[in-house]
């Protein structure tokens, strides 16, 4: 792990497993509370160094880090596909997005602007002029999940470096190696010591010190709702960015092109084994299309090849652990016991779980209300858009949604009424580029990530006023 610019090994280590066969892929040091305090101490100096770094240096470092990742892209992809769930094809796509995230961060570093303030809006203030600058907030604590182990870390380090902050990253315990490799890229790019630490260990053991320490000015968390709520309670008076989960809905109306819709929805449901915060979980299809949609959906799902992550022909690898696959199996079995119909899938082999399609699920069932975070999708027949919107909104999540229709009026109706942070028209909920404001409402989070928007969260305005 990297603490304040120094690479540290420890006697006590944590094994990192390849979930496919449970072999040990690597080991990382198990950080102690003292290590965390040491990282915070280093970051206190790092924050001063980062804030002094001229913009041209920040963007040069970010571009060099992007070049490094690009040059070693196959190593990064192999790492993601070894410690995580993704196939090598999905892993390569993540590496390419990481390069993009770092390049956008370099570009956005040039555009951290304030604006002038018209003080003369107040009678008696005609002789005042001024503006505000954007200043870095200091030290950012970043806590990241297992499912995008590289790019979601880049979404925290890139904007932090661009905006002149120090940052301490606590990557997911199951997939820390990708984050360590990203730290290597910043080290090679010449990021000054103490600006970045990547510290490995159990979130519940070392997380509290990081979250609650008064020197930390912002906690940027990506992960599950439950963990997010615990962190928010402990953080105290700090900025919070919470990128949490969802059970994203997609609405398919009478006039949708069924071929295109099925193809986007199947990909959106099973990308990264359904372990995707914006993955498609609930699909609401109007009556006239329902039977055709179901048939085509099953046919397409059954073409999915589940198996070896490193085989380029594989569409879906294992879940992150056998424990998670067992949980998914239990949720599906519970839904079946309650009267759901299994259209395809429902089979587990170790950490592998086949792509699964259910119908006749009650909208009150756990599997419809909570985030399944596995390769399971629920198909609901609805009368019209009104019913679809009502059911889509009837959960405590709201990250992204999709709607398929050619009717612009109905699309605008959905834009107005769906309770989400993003709506994709004629695409599934599973759409994101790294430069858009990404985030959710309700239990899906607070704040927006997507480089420019993350920089807004990581900076604070300082008002300057001249009395003439
Ligand atoms: P998780 O909440 O279990 O863990 C996330 C991180 O929090 C890990 O690094 C973990 O070690 C750490 N952690 C756990 N307990 C902690 C504690 N008490 N204090 C401090 N840190 C602690 O999530 P996960 O299983 O790794 O990831 C899956 C979740 O992440 C899903 O809900 C998914 O939807 C969500 N997610 C959201 C986005 C988004 O951008 N909105 C993106 C990816 C994943």
Overall description:
The protein is an alpha/beta fold. The protein has two domains: 2-245 and 443-467, Aldehyde Dehydrogenase, Chain A, domain 1 (3-Layer(aba) Sandwich), CATH 3.40.605; 248-434, Aldehyde Dehydrogenase, Chain A, domain 2. It has helices at 33-52, 55-71, 73-83, 88-109, 151-162, 177-188, 203-212, 225-235, 258-270, 287-301, 322-337, 366-369, 385-393, 408-417, 451-457; strands spanning 2-3, 6-7, 13-18, 23-29, 128-136, 139-143, 166-170, 196-198, 216-222, 239-243, 248-252, 280-286, 341-344, 348-349, 352-353, 356-359, 376-382, 400-404, 422-425, 445-446, 459-467. It has a seven-stranded mixed β-sheet, sandwiched between helices. A six-stranded mixed β-sheet has the order 8-7-6-9-10-20, with helices on both faces. The model has no long low-confidence stretch (mean pLDDT 97). Nicotinamide-adenine-dinucleotide is lined by residues 143-148, 152, 170-173, 203-204, 207, 222-224, 227, 230-231, 243-245, 277, 371, 373, 399, 445.
